[in-house]
Amino acid sequence: MKSIMGYLFLGEVICCVLLALLSSFSMASDPSPVQDFCVAINDPKAAVFVNGKFCKDPMQATADDFFLSGLNIPGDTMNQVMSNVTPANVAQIPGLNTLGISMVRIDYAPYGLNPPHTHPRATEILVVLEGTLYVGFVTSNLNPGNKLFTKILHKGDVFVFPIGLIHFQFNVGKTNAVAIGALSSQNPGVITIANALFGSTPPINDDVLAKAFQIDNKMVDYLQSRFWTDNN
Q1: Is 154 known as a binding-site position?
Q2: Which InterPro entries does the record associate with it (predicted)?
């Protein structure tokens, strides 16, 4: 009986130790970043941001800090990709700071495209308000490769794009389309793949892009010479 009680006591001790370790690990982990980077500095007099923004004295906050109007206004789709993204993030709504959410309105002309892009800091859930969209995302490397998930969405349909994965929306209808995207970050960021690779400043070395895409340097130069549209 004593040996059994001893084993039970030992088991309880081990469980307590494991719980304590797990608690310390969770408390020691870093919060998710909401900026592209934060360069460490030793000078405390230099500006320090909290979630990318300074915080207003809460006694000075007003209702306008949590308000935005204008998402009923269609965005200008007169550009190369024929789409427009109107953001509603912490830059437009200061009260979103530290709350971890934001949204966008996306307008598409007929056959307009929101080009392949990623949000490095957010999962996106999209709902179609008008029109018909062909949407999809590509997984990270799986065996045997990157898997594509696609769907045709109609008015009222909803689709999720997991955080950090390349995704797109294409208006396959003959009329304008509108969608609302909700994102799990106050500042989700956006990396449009074509713009980032062929429109960066300064340009990525031709040899790097030529080998990556298995094309010649002249084609790289041609693509880099194109005017890359920012639809955000």
Answers
A1: no
A2: Cupin_1, Germin, Germin_Mn-BS, RmlC-like_jellyroll, RmlC_Cupin_sf
Q: Check the annotation: does 141 bind a ligand.
A: no
Task: Convert the pLDDT of each residue in 47-61 to its tens digit.
Answer: 666 677 778 888 889
In a domain, 121, yes or no: yes
Q: Is 167 annotated as a binding residue?
A: yes
Whether pTM exceeds 0.85:
no
21 membership: H or E segment, kind and range: helix 2-28
- Which tokens in the block code for residue 12? 């309880």
Domain that includes residue 157, residue range: 64-189
Residue 23 domain-assigned (yes or no): no
> Which residues, 6 or more positions from 85, have their beta carbon under 8 angstroms from its beta carbon?
75, 104, 105, 106, 114, 190, 231, 232
Exposed e or buried b per residue across 157-182, where buried means at least 16 C-beta atoms within 10 angstroms of its C-beta: eebebebebbbbbbbbbeebbbbbbb
Quick one: which of 112, 87, 230 has its CA closest to 169?
112
119 marked as binding residue = yes
Residue 163 resides in a domain = yes
Q: Is 114 annotated for ligand binding?
A: yes
What's the structural domain count of the chain? 1
